[in-house]
Amino acid sequence: MKFSPHAPTRSPLLLALLVVGLLLSACTRIGIPEGWSSPVVDGDTLYVGTMDGDFRAIELESGAKIWDFELEGEEDRRAVYGRPAVLDGKVYFGGYDGVMYALTQDGGSLWDREVGDVSPMVGGPAVEDGVVMIGSSDGTFYAFDAGDGSLEWTFPTGNRVWSTPAAQDGVVYFGSLDHNVYAVNVSDGSEKWRFDARGGVTARPLLHDGRVYVGSFASAFYALDAETGAVVWRFDGADSWFWGGAAASGDLVFAPSLDGVVYALDRLSGELVWTLPTRGPVIGAPTVVAGRLAAGSSDGRVWLRDLDGGDVRSCDIGSRIRSSITAHGDVLLVAVTDHSLRALAVTPSGADEKWAHFSNRGNPLASGEEKAC
Amino acid sequence: MEILGEIWNGVIIRPMINSLVLLYAVFFSNFGLAIITFTVIIRAGMIPLSIKQSRSMKAMSAAQPKMKELQERYKNDRQKLSQETMKLYREHGINPVGCLGPLVVQMPIFLGLFWALRGTLPSTPERLADLSKHLYSWLPMVHEAVPLDGTFLFLDLAEYSSANPLPFLLPVLVGVSMFVMQKMTTMPSTTPQQESTNRMMLWLMPGMFGVFTLNFEAGLALYWIVSNVVGIVIQGFVTGWAPLVDLAKSIVNFGRSAMTQKPAAEGAEDSSEEEPPAREADKDENDRDDGQDGRRSNRNRPKGARRRAPGRRNRRR
After folding, report:
1. What is the ipTM of this complex?
2. Chain A nearest CA to B207, separation (Å)
């Protein structure tokens, strides 16, 4: 930075410009985690983490709050990203505050554990054979006894583990930002196989028909043999990363990409069958409901397309959707960045909002006059 | 406004982010080396501008005596002074706004780098997801390099300087390197006004940037330090090292005088218990200096020994 002595009148102006520019820049914080938890349904209740640093139980029928549970960590780390897991009436979830929580059905604490070096947890847990498993940003995958929270085993990886694991037949599958997909035995934490996906993996692996479907930041989507980790096929047609998990129905597997497209691929060959283009990155996993594919996009819409690649419809909610969509019967449960959780009944003409639960309002309940669609 | 944002992203932010990630991939996944290389490349690209500016400054320096003459001759005719000054500039090949070139080029780079660093080393999942839209889809190498490791030596380049170990190290280095840079580029002034502005800028800018650095990412501080060092080297080769040598000499002299004064003061304290404390003695001496030459007195006064307002001591009592 140079100021010429022959231009003394310009110097203060330049200085002022510089100061304003820097101050404007400095006013923006490095980033506060907002969270994008997606709901899980158990009976008449759904459980979800909110953007307001708590975890809630909500009546599935009405959207009324049953109870809430405030996270323990520092205020700027109270966020939940992954989908909670439910087993025998107990709810498990990992917080961005680095704490693993186990709650009872009435919102009481069963146990909680600071995980590793208390690094943020972004993925949700998986429960298998009485073991609850979750990845941490400290690069380690942890397994706890579901009953008392005691540590069963750990599995180190080379980078953050933000992927929600999927477990089946005594094996848990998860991805890491070290570019690998891992298959680990639930009983002892030993490695069954690993696969180099050439890019970071945040997606929850989809287990279907003896295969593991998962995408990576290398813009590649893979079908792997669940037993060996061998590549069955690979799809390279996306322009950006695969962040969220996939969904499957019939002969199709649906892979959401940050390029804003959900790719419908042939499950056996990996060939592209059709696409569901949206106007923003698709971060969360799509789902299948009432014969349609449903995906939430950062463009603020829930997009629907017939499974045969026919009609495309959308419901404009108006705020970004980053979380995975949960289907319950013909109802879609969508967490939105306007602090709402919305229940959308899928109809032949699109979707009809049943209720909206706002976590940042005093008495959140049915929306009525604020229906998005 | 949206179009401006697109242009800003397309022309500044995206190329910067992709360059940084590419350099990271090339330089052994070391983000510190990526920033240093990036800075050297940027400064190398600006060498023609810097040389032009330095030459302009040199010419300006050579024209100073004539400038003073003009100011004296036309002190009552501002219009004529302005005309003659411009004529003098033309004769010496001086571009009066030439000094703004590097600044104009550097400002978008600095602000762009600020955003690029935040984008490249995201601290939350939301920001990591946002990074994808900035990476070129035709450059697979950058996608495979994500996420980047922001550690360099003992620093976390994604964290604020104040949140790193030795929180004041980077701000001090930024301030010192900028001070030296300023010293290298400041010329003798022709009027007391200019003198005062120069002196203000010489201290204010490094101080201000040092304070700002506390609340900026360490990666940005690293950029600024390297940029200043490279700038000093370029300036030295173009216009000579005299200002740096002078600065070094004054530091050495200051150190010597401090060393010689200290034993003298200690000796004075030891010699008699009746004498007033050293600070009182200094104060008296400074007061005497003020009567002769206020500026000299300020310069000679030790850093920690501020002048007390009259009566202040009494109020405190």
Report:
1. 0.89
2. 12
